[in-house]
């Protein structure tokens, strides 16, 4: 992939500035089926080593002579966080980005770099969205990251679109859909201006985010059009992740639209996409999210056996692959609902699923959720809109 020089470097320091687009390209090259097994094995060792480094650095801060951070250490933590931010099967996202944040702000002022600070802030935004369910904090962190990049006054429009999209997700997640739409449109205006592969990849993500914004305000037809575009784009550049989430988002759209058979078809397409990809895609956060959606469709279609089976899969995958407590609580809540389709037969199991959902909610920071509210809406608010 050839990127214009002015788009990938901070001209004042020579540092690379396009983390997410470069990461996307690397993953697209690394996740072909024939390379996946070796890539997964090496990646797991890499993540273990980085987690050990992060823990060692943190532990040393309590010693009389603590380890001193370097810019390279901060960059390593940020790069690792980018790698796992949307499929953290190692369960290290919060550790590495928290360590990166602490290390960066311990650096002498003359070693601090705006691009690294902006990266760390955007990763904190993602952590708050995906792992903490703290949407207000996510929005604040995203806007701080954006302000730094705007202040740099160097060509980096694609990185700005990344900030716009995450701020939009934060706004959408708390129901401020008009504000979110404004941020998404700012991103879209940039991405539609160029037709190369990199812009198309990022436009695909924008289509996914925009579609959720639209179906949240019952604009189902326009949402469907954007999801059709996202499916076509993801197919062209062979991204299993984007294509699976496009089908998952379509299923979500059709549920809201009352088209349950169409939703079921989209769940099957999402699962087929994951199965064909091999390796990490087959059983991952994405597969747990698809199982959740399959169960929710089956409940609406009154097919209890499928609803229970799929919800149990979602719960098991979430536990095995270390999904955040909020997502796991939501999956257990759905399992309870599936069991309650026949309370006489599954009353005990439903009670156990409810207890597990409440136990997981108690792991969240104080004030993040009201334990007395066990409505679907309360559990939806534990996750951001992209997987709701």
Descriptive keywords:
388 residues, mainly alpha
Please describe what this structure looks like.
The chain is 73% helix and 0% strand. It is mainly alpha-helical and 388 residues long. α4 runs antiparallel to α5. 48% of the residues are buried.
Question: Which helices and strands, and how do they pair?
Answer:
Elements: H1 5-8, H2 19-30, H3 33-60, H4 71-84, H5 93-104, H6 114-132, H7 135-152, H8 157-173, H9 177-191, H10 197-215, H11 220-236, H12 240-257, H13 260-277, H14 285-300, H15 304-320, H16 325-339, H17 343-361, H18 376-380
In short:
InterPro entries: TPR-like_helical_dom_sf. The chain has helices at residues 5-8, 19-30, 33-60, 71-84, 93-104, 114-132, 135-152, 157-173, 177-191, 197-215, 220-236, 240-257, 260-277, 285-300, 304-320, 325-339, 343-361, 376-380. The chain is mainly α and 388 residues long.
- Considering DSSP H and I runs of 4 or more, what fraction of the residues is helical? over 70%
Q: What separation lies between the terminal Cα atoms?
A: 34 Å
| CATH topology-level fold name of one domain | Serine Threonine Protein Phosphatase 5, Tetratricopeptide repeat
Mean pLDDT score, rounded? 88
| Estimated share of beta-strand residues | under 5%
CATH superfamily of one domain: Tetratricopeptide repeat domain
**In one word, what is the shape?**
globular
